Amino acid sequence: MNALGERLVRILGDPNFLAMKGLANEVPIFIQTYRPEQEDALRRMVESLAGRLRNAGITVRPLDLFELVLAELEEHGILDELLEHEQAWEKADVLETLQNFSDPRTRLVPRLMRAIGDGETQLTLVTGSGRVYPFLRTHNLLESLQPAMLNHPIVIFFPGEYTQDPDGGSQLRLFGSELGPRIVTPYYRAANLDHLRI
After folding, report:
1. pTM, 2 dp
2. Boundaries of domain holding 50
3. 79 pLDDT more than 80
4. Residue 103 lies inside a defined structural domain of this protein
5. 94 domain residue, yes or no
6. Under 8 Å between Cβ of 95 and 135
């Protein structure tokens, strides 16, 4: 994890990366994979990374998907009710409620864009992809983020594997196992940071 942190400081702090040069009209969304068992270490590394980038004069906005979902539930007066009655509710009802209030297109991406704020942010670091599964899936978030007007790079940390085929297909495998959900789509407009060289 230390080596990943050092590599990301170099990549994410590079002025060309921050200026989104060389993207060939692609959206500035990047996936950084990591091993699921490193979740705690990853969160500490992202916190340290954000601090180091801020010390270098970069305006960084770290956001956690789970915290965004909680904020959405709280804003609509659902969180306390959900916590109070969760055991009495059917699991399908709990899942449906969480899915409704974390819908990427209508709720989460607009909340994420508000959290990013005005044009001062130069870089957004998004964690929590594993924490919001199964009610929010990263591929749905990516699909909803793509049409958003992004004026700076967004890095989504993903506990699993992200592969891109030469023919343009993409595959996200949460938790990186054969048992984990496998989502294949013709094309995610997100670059794999594992393969980026600066």
Report:
1. 0.89
2. 2-64+120-195
3. yes
4. no
5. no
6. yes
